[in-house]
Amino acid sequence: MFFDGFPSAVGMQNPDLISSVGMQPIPVNFPFRTERAHRIMAENAPDLVGLHEPEGTFLFVSPSCLAHLGYLSAELAGGSFFALFHPDDQEPVRQEWSGIRAGAAATGSFTYRMRRKNGEYAWFETRVRPVADEGVPARWVQSVSREMPPPGRATLGLGTPRAGAGSREDSPETLLHRIAGNSPLAFYVFNAHTGEIIYFNRRFCELWNLEDLEALRRRGELKAQDIVPRANLMLREAGQYALEPAADGGDEAPEAEYALVDGRTICRFASVVRNEENAYFAHLYLYEDITGRRLADDKIRENQAGLAEAQRIARVGSWTLNLDTQAFSASAETQRILGLDVARTSSTTGLPPDGTGPVLTFTDMIRKIHPDDVKAFIECIENTLDRGDPCDLTFRTVPSDQEVKHVRCQANPVRNPDGSLKALTGIIHDITQQKRTEEQLIAAKELAERSVRIKEEFLANMSHEIRTPLNGIVGMTHLLSQTELSAEQQQFMGAIRFSTDSLMVIINDILDLAKIESGMLQIESIPLDVRQVLRDVTSLFRIKTQEKGVEIFTKVADNVPQTLLGDSVRLNQILLNLIGNAVKFTQQGFIGVSLHCNESNAEHTEVVFSVKDTGIGIGENKLGMVFDSFTQATGDTTRRYGGTGLGLAICKKLVELQGGRISVSSQLGRGSEFTFFIRYPKGMPAHPRPAAVTDQGPPPVLPETLRILLAEDNEINRLILLTMLDKWPRVAASVDVATNGLEVLDLLREGDYDLILMDCQMPRMDGYTATRCIRGEMAGWKARIPIIAITASALKHDEERVFECGMNDFIPKPFEPQQLFEKIIRAVTTSQVTASGTVAYDLTLLREITGDNSETFVTIIEKFLEKTPLEIGELTESVDQRDYPRMARIVHRLKSTARFLGLSALGELLDEMEEEGQAAGSDPDPKRIRYQAAQVRSAFGQILEGLRAELRKLGPDTEGRISPHAAD
Length: 968
Fold this sequence. Notes:
Elements: H1 5-13, H2 15-21, H3 35-43, E1 48-52, E2 58-61, H4 65-69, H5 73-76, H6 90-101, E3 108-115, E4 121-133, E5 136-148, H7 172-181, E6 186-191, E7 196-200, H8 202-208, H9 214-218, H10 224-232, E8 255-259, E9 265-274, E10 280-289, H11 291-314, E11 316-322, E12 328-330, H12 332-338, H13 362-367, H14 371-387, E13 391-397, E14 405-415, E15 421-430, H15 432-481, H16 487-517, E16 526-528, H17 530-539, H18 542-548, E17 551-556, E18 564-566, H19 568-585, E19 590-600, E20 604-613, H20 635-641, H21 647-657, E21 661-667, E22 671-681, E23 705-711, H22 715-726, E24 732-738, H23 741-750, E25 755-759, H24 767-777, E26 787-791, H25 796-804, E27 809-812, H26 817-828, H27 844-850, H28 854-880, H29 884-900, H30 904-918, H31 926-954, H32 956-959
Parallel strand pairs: 17-19, 23-24, 23-25, 25-26, 26-27
Antiparallel strand pairs: 1-2, 1-5, 3-4, 4-5, 6-7, 6-10, 8-9, 9-10, 11-12, 11-15, 13-14, 14-15, 16-18, 19-20, 20-22, 21-22
Helix pairs in contact: 1-2, 1-3, 15-16, 15-22, 16-21, 17-19, 19-21, 23-24, 28-29, 28-31, 29-30, 30-31
């Protein structure tokens, strides 16, 4: 036959095809009788080999088509052989093909151009032979195409046999010889009966260094024993190579590996060649250099070991579930985390190492999940399968006889090229230790928060317990100072006032430190004149320094801007502490305060402050601790000069809050110098901050008699407040007294008052609760009556509680009479409230718009009653959350309503609030904003009550139409 080995190669893929082809028997002396040899020769043939339907459709094409034409075998299978030829050559090829298929010649040969996948054309000589089947001619057609030089060029190699030549070059043996000679596999054929080497190819000689044995083979003198000793010389283990098949031709081990001394690894395949009577004919040995494969295997094993070790260290295991076969594989770390039986399964496939026993399944994994978490896990996996979303879930596992573990499972879908789901692959991360750490952190956080709350409660209680009696001392001192006193009594009064002032300094220092450490102290950014601040502070110490004979001077460099953006209060506090310490510890010499600009750019100006004295100084071993809380240089310092050791600690924290740093240099007995810098931002607020309410201009209009309800449980404080109010020269105050919140509610229900002075801490019912009851349960003016908190607590959250419960303002104890009077005036005199206590609104414009259409008038009023309470609620929420831009938007909507109802005065207040909320970079005073919001709530509350009265005048049926929201 033309190529007897080729159909067998096809048959390896399709056995039915071989039976239908009906191949002629292979001669007994043909050496490549086995199916394996046929397949190897066909698949490794250097020429392009094909089997076709009579009309040219490919049934099979050898893998060499990739090297010749750039196509994979699968790309050509089922396609037309003629389509590969140049368009100009396709018709001649069809004609010659038809002639050969019709039996005009036993074989045919033609040379034409074939198209490669990249579009180029090359010349191929194609030899074609029909294949018959049991007398039926031209059942199939075989083709062998060899690439040729273009016409006119000299040929290399074996020449170009032509069709019908009948020469030896046209024989199957010649073709097979060429295939075998160019095969990448080394092989030889050996007859075990005679010991004769029947054939070996060039690659075999190269492999075992046997090129000089070809002459012996040609003479038929080459024996197996000639090969064995020479091959053993190349083996790493001498004597490993042996060729002693059974004399009767019994089968050898089909496969073996040899390690060569040069580092290569050779794999040997062995098979027996039998004749048609199934009698032994020869042995076929094929050799393949698998060095690269073994190196790759070693690398894979190394990578797998490294991956397993990395997974073990990271406590992260991997797993895969094949959705088609349901095969489940899990790494050793996954099995360890889940508590699966690692000994009975492979670390990579999940199969038993010996191939026996139970197989690891996905169900085994699910069984290890805590029963309470199984449902969530299955739902997460099902969601991934249904929607393709990644699965990310934390759950608990219960390994056998082990403690419960926390794991995080992540899984992703793997898709086929057509988009269908192929598998799930995921990881299991043991986060048990992380969970424990989180629980410990949560416990530590709760403990810290509880400690902070205890600390704040202690400070609040301490503030209250100290300020309350201190308020009595300060108040009585003030009242006593207004009486006739002798010179000696005046001296005693001065000592009392000095003591109370010192005690207030200590209390305020402790509270300031608490505010800073809790993050409740805010730094403002408003226009600041540092020269004026310096003048104000130093003026406070002039008398003291003059008494001691100490000179105090200041120096401000010309490069310091006149106005900066900063917090004047906190700067004042820092300078008061530093200059106060300098005055305290300096008995002679001078105190110098200087300022200069150290750096200035487009964003900020860095101002450096220096306070230098010639006082007692600080020892070098104490310099590192002077900024610590409750620390002074020595115990003697505290006894001789007083103080708490908090002043410098507060200074340091205040400086750092403003982006600066403070330092000290000192020599014992020669004085100290404290230096700090603050970076002040450049620029000015887009809208200047509204000025605080002051008594400038004409005094506000007050009623002749103020009806005040005083809620205070402390007898001394009641006496002080009653005396202050009684001696108020401007207004006659009529005061009723309550000692707890319940009495406040009873008195307010029975009488009318202009103002309530409410102590926050009272027995039976405190001031916060009483205020909530007033705001929520009282009706009319009583629900909106101004309430001023009189509190001995001065922490930030205490201030916030005052406004949260609905009070209008607060005054901390102790206080001077004038401070109290100013608070009262501010509370009872607003531009929106008339002498009768009602907000003046005007519905003239609305009536002009609606005319005689009372239905439209009622609808507009109803809408106003429905929406306004909701907007007031949003306003309160934005103020509580300090969301001032949102506050500005809400106020803008209320402005249009206010002007529509003729509330011009209220509109001015809303304008002011809107500007504060819109000011770029500004930080409005929260207390002022809350006070303004309280005014707006009070005013609109009166308006809503008045509008409801307007609707009732129009008829009883209109009141029932009011939205439920309008009553909020």
